Every structure is written in C-alpha cells, then in structure tokens.
Amino acid sequence: MGSVGNGWPRGGGEIGELLRHPAFHAVGLGPVESWPASLKHIAEMVLNSRQPKFVAWGPDLAFLYNDAYVPVFPERHPNALGRPFREVWADIWEQFSPIIANTLQGSSQLFKELLIPMRRDGHTEDTWFTFSYTPLRDDDGKVAGILCAALDVTDQVSAKRGEETALEELRAKSEALAVVNRAGAAVTAEPSVERLTQIVVDAGVTLTGAEFGAFFYNVDDDESGSYMLYALSGVDRKNFEKFPMPRNTKVFAPTFDGEGIVRSDDILLDPRYGQNAPHAGMPKGHLPVRSYLAVPVKSRDGSVIGGLFFGHGQPGRFSQAAEASLVSLAGQSAVAIDNIRLFRAAKVEIDQRRDMEDQLRKLNEMLEVRVAAEIAERQQAEAALQQSQKMESIGKLTGGVAHDFNNLLQVISGNLQLLGKDVADSGRAKERISNALAAVERGSRLASQLLAFGRRQPLEPTVVNIGRLVTGMDDMLRRALGEEIEVETMVSGGLWNSFADPTQIENALLNLAINSRDAMNGAGKLTIEVGNAFLDDSYSRTHPEVTAGQYVVLAITDTGSGMMQEVMEQAFEPFFSTKPEGKGTGLGLSMVYGFVKQSDGHVKIYSEIGEGTTVKLYLPRSFQSEDRITNVDSVPATGGTETILVAEDDEGVRTTVVEMLTDLGYYVLKSKDAQSALTVIESGAHIDLLFTDVVMPGPLRSPELARMARERLPDIAVLYTSGYTENSIVHGGRLDPGLELLSKPYTREELARKIRHVLANRTHRRQGASDAVAPVPEHPDIAVEKLKLLLVEDDAFIRMDTAEILQDLGYDVIEADSGERGVEILGHTVVDIIVADVSLPGMSGPVFAAKAREAFPSVGLVFATGHSSLPDASRLSGSVLLSKPFSSTALERAVKTAVQQRPVG
C-alpha cells in the first residue's frame, strides 16, 4: 500500500478525499501516515465498499466510515469522521456499549432487525438495522478495533408491520364466498373458518327465516373425525351446546356420506341425548329445534368435506326456494373451503420460503463479514511476507559483498600489523599505521553487521539465561549511556533459558541501548525487561515468518521521540537511518534483525511519536540447563613452536597469515587448496594444527579435509577461518558443535589467542584420554570434565532429558537425532564416548557405531535399548548395554564403564 503522499487511500469517494487532507487527524491515531499497516489495509477496503460499513479503532475507537454509511446519520457527517465512537453515538451508547465490549473481547456478533431509537432531525425515532460486528486485530495479533457491516431495514420492517395490520383488517372485512341474494360476493386474502361460518349462517337465516343455523366443517379433522362450528339466531347458545353433533350421528350419515339432503318436519329424537333435555316440556332425546335441514358440502373433486345444518324452533318444512338456496349456498361454501385449503397451503409455502430467504440473507451477511475479515488478514500477512522476502534478498546481496570485503580487510590488516614491526622506531609511521588499523577495524565492524543482517554470520549459540546475561551488563551499559540516562532492569521470576549466541545478544542490547540514548538526546529513562512469552497461532497467521511457540523476550523501552509508521517499516533495512549524515551507518538495527532471525527468533518495534519506542527480541526457549561459557580472550596472546598447516586459496591472505604465524614462532606449512593440503598431510610431516579457510575451490571441501586429516593424524587440532560460511560448517545459522572458527578479518592478537586456545583444548583432550584408561576416581566430575560425549537418540524428549543428566555429570554433550547426523558430526569433531539408541530410524545404532569405530578406534560405546541383551551386530569391543528405561544412576554407571573398557590405540 502506498504512503499518504502517493494518494493513500486509493479511491474511497468523498471520505477518501477527507482522509487525504493534510489536516485530518483521527483521535488516538493521529494523521493517516502514522497509522499501522493493519488499519490501513482494512480502512481502504471499507472505504471502497458499496455496503454501509465503518471501522472503530484504537483506545478511543476512532470512528471511520465510507460514503455508503453517510445516509445512516447525514446530520452527523462529516464531524463524526475520526471522532470517538462514544461521542459520535452518545444517544445510543448505553444500548451498544455491551455489544462493543463483547466484540473487543474477540467475539463476532450478528443482529437481525434490531430496534434502535435514534436521534434524527432533532427528535428520537424508531429505526431498525441488521448488522454484524467483527473484531479486528493489529500487527501484533491483539484486538484493536471493530468492523461493522450495516443495513438500514427500517422501511422493510415498517412495511411488513403495515401489511400485517392491513391483513387483519382484510380478514375482518372480507367474505369467504359469494352467497345468494343479500349475501353478495366477497373475496378474502386469508379466509377463516369462523368467519366463513358466520357468513354462511347469516345468509342461511336470511334465506330460510330459520332461527338457528350451524355449519359442519371437517377440513382440519380432530381425532374424532369432525367438529362443528355454528352461530345462533334467536336460540339460546347454552342449550344447544349440550347437544354436539358429531359426524357419526346416524341421522346425518347420508349428508356426510354425500348421499343427499336430510330433512325433518318435526321433532328429532335420539336416545343418546335422553338425559339432556334443555327445558321442561321437551321429550327425552329432543334437539333444541323442531325442524331442520342438513345439506352436504362437496369439494371440487366431489368428496364431502362438511355439511350445512339449519333449524328452527317450530315444526314445519323449509320451502323449496329456501332449500334450493341452501343447496346453492353449500356449493359456494365448498368453493370457499377449497380456497381456505389452498390459501393455507400457499401460506405454509410462503412462510417456508420467507424463512429460507431470511436464512440465506443472514448467511450472505455473515459470509461478507467473514470474507472482509479474511481479506484484511490475508493482506496483512502478504505485506509481512513481502517485507520478509525483501529483507531476505537484501541479506543475500550484503552477505556476498561482506565475504569479499573481509578477505581484502584481512590482507590489509595483516600487512599493516607486520609493517608495524618494521617501523617500530618511527613514531609518525606507527601513528599512521594505527590510524589505518582503526579504519580496518571500522570496516570489519561494518562487514560483520552486513553478515549479521544477511544471516550469514557463524553464530556460536549456547544455552543461556538472558536475565543473568543482561544483569551482568549493567555496569557496562551505564558507562556507555552516560549519567543522564536512568537504566532500570527487570527480570521475571521463573525465567526460561534460551538457545542463542551470548556475544550477539550483548551486541544487540548495546546497539539498541545506544539508539535509545540518541533518541532521548542523552537524557531519559531506559527500561530493560526480560520475561517469558508465548506467540500463538493467531499471531503467526498475521506474521508468516513467525513459528508459534515459547520464547524468551528481551524488551528495551526508551522515553525518546518515537517513530512514525513509515520509519518503523524501514527501520531494519540496511543503511536506513534518521540520524544526520556521518552520525550513523544505519546498520545497528539491521544487525539486530539478522541475528534474531538467524536464531529462529522474532523482532518487533512498538512506537508512537512523542511516546518513546519499545523493541522486543523474541528468542526461542531451550529446555536444557545453562551452558558454562569459556572466555577465549582470557587466553594469553602468545606464540609457540608447534607446526601449523595453512590451507588458504586467496594468495594475499595466505601470504599474510603465514608471515604472522611465523612471526609468532610457529613452523608453518602452506597449501593453496584442500587437495594440496591433504597431500602435505599424507607426506608424513608432523602437523599439530590445521588452519583452513572454509570456502576453497576444488572438489574437496574443508570439513572433508579435516575429517581425512584426523583419520591420518588423530592428534591434529583443526581451526577454521572464513569471512562467509555459506553453510559448509554452519547449519541452521549455527556453528556445528565441537568446531572452532576465527572469523575474518582478525588481528594478530586474536589469531595468537585462538591458536593457543585450540592447541590447549587438544592437550586437554589427550590428557583426558590418558586419564580415562586408568580407574575412574570416586568423584568422576573431575576426571570426565573434559570428555566429549556424542548422544544419538531420535526421541526428542528422551534426548533432551538424557543430555541434561550427562551435562550435570560434567560431560561435554553433543546431540544428534539420527545416525546420519552423527556421522556428519564425526566428520569434523573428535569424541571420546558415544551413547546411541539401537533402534534409530534410517541408519541403525549398531551400523553408526561401526562407522564411528572406523573413524575413532578408541571411542567408548554405550548402547541404549529396551531389549535384555545387545544384538550380535552391536557387540563391538568394549561396548556397554544400557537397558531402557534407565535411571540417572544407571546412565552414569554405563558411561563410566564405557570409559574404562574402551579400546586403546
């Protein structure tokens, strides 16, 4: 997405123009150029939508809406734009505050035809809205706002309510059928049986002069098969209610069977009603009429669906005209009843269709909200991915440049140091050489920062407690920042360990602290916090480069000037700086970014103009115990008399380093590539140390050269050097266990210290081997402290627990998850003991152990297995069985025995 100056937001109609105005500020968010990327993405989507929508974002829920939303509150526009939600909708805040609170807790909500009393044109009126509320997340995965898609359905609801009122009136006024004579014709939208009965009775009484009429109707039969609806004229209803006329009354059977008309000219008797005579003087079983006429009502298909019954209190006979009229009325009644049936069926279908349409509309509304949220999340993730890919591309370029640059610096540095000895008596020459070496050192730092950003520096990670590391830097930070900067360090209790390069952690913290000092103009407060953190799946969805899991977080917060959004988006790019020209390289944050990424971590900036800045470094948690760190700088920078073979393809570098080593007193052999170095080794010459560049031409790689050198000279020490590792001895951004590396460019003192350190380790390892053949002392920590142990176990939990036990016992433990990885480690690392699982995937434990014995005939072997004995292939000389599950005591005993029993030679 472009910046404000490039026309953000794109489109957006009238509201877009208002947002692009330089004077526009949203409460709590400031001008649009300082908005976070996540808000920009969702705001642009809303502005260009044709459906009424708004976004409420930030601590004050700044109200941002589109052109389609303006008709909802025309008198509040444009003053509402960018104002707090509570202020914009003060009249309905009490109704909506619980809905907003639930949404900000992460719950999506949908409301259908919600009544909202709203202030419009100076008075409150009822309005109805269908709308959805969806929580919106910021760049850190936290809920920061609300997205609303709304639809004003006031007119539809009002129309529907008017239709219902009109229908009631129509039902009350309409007639169910056309009746003869004065009954007239009537049409109904939804005829009712009760109304039809009244119409039929009224018409029948008019036609016949009968004092009583009843309409039998069985469209909706109950369990008895029929029921009776009736109306009375001049007859006591209570008396007649005592004589229900079910369909199975024998007298009326012909009518209900469709055989014809049933009539009576005088009293009707029925024994069943004998005890229910309505008044004195009537015989038992007499109905409360003296004469009656029953006419069948037939449907269009000829089936009998009911009957008409008319009677009066005097004996007599209905006239033929009246009877004919009643028959005609029965026919009209049948039409009306059929219409009732059809109407009811249609109404059921209409109601079902209306329900389906409501469900479909609800689904569409929810789908649009979900699509909008998904698009916003995807745009946010794509932006993060593009930024990550850009940083990766720049990193590859800078890493390649740094490689060649380091070789040049090494030649310049080495020759300047050698020249310094030749002009030792000339103070002016020494000063010039000192200035040149200072420039080389600055160039070396620059190359180191480029490598760090490009994730190409060879890290040497250890299990470290960052809280203890940071606390130990307190005095150094106070000296570097000055007295005007207040430094506060807070370390959480129960802090986890992390797996990272402690030197690079120190460099990163120092870089960030100095940046903070500059942002505070030399005066302010710097807060350093170390704690545990968990980045969940929702966070990793919006940050594709982040793996969800447990991290140790190092946060550095200052009270400085803060950053704008555009500055934060570029802060990690190499050579980007807001400092005046000549005041900074723009590589400090780049180095921090590259180191954290290379360590499988995550880095995040939080900043606001005038509110300071927080930078958080997330480094992966380690479940192992903290490593003991050896300080190479404590080794004296002295020379020696050992023989060193130098393998270096760059002629300038080779010449310089040979002269430096010779000047330190060493006897030096040299070769231009790995193949010629192997020729020297195979010549039988005595060699104490192989000093080889990592990257050299030819088919033979340096790690393979080192492995073959150890096969021929088991006591040889190996030291690698490189300005760029290209993953040959670095895997996953980390130096392989057991390797020693001197990064280019290096000084004469650094070279001297590193050579003595590597040779001293060789002596310790040799001494440890000679001690191991003797009985193990009662306190094994002293004897086994220098023994290097390779643990090969494919189960991560078993490997982790076993490694921790062995480290507590004092062993230098290297871990491998397969036999293949174990062989790779043995190619460049000398080990004293191997603890291997028998049932490894791929290469089995016994096969791996056989290969290990070929490389190191005297290595001690411990086989861990769930079986009670070792398989034949595992019975190598001196091997020890460790039965699973095993205790720490059993593990210690097995390793001790393997040390005592390992072959000599």
From TrEMBL:
The keyword Protein transport does not apply. Residues 112-165 form the PAC domain. It catalyses: ATP + protein L-histidine = ADP + protein N-phospho-L-histidine. Transmembrane segments: none annotated. It is an enzyme of class 2 (transferase). Keywords: ATP-binding, Coiled coil, Kinase, Nucleotide-binding, Phosphoprotein, Plasmid, Transferase, Two-component regulatory system. Residues 346-391 form a coiled coil. This is histidine kinase.
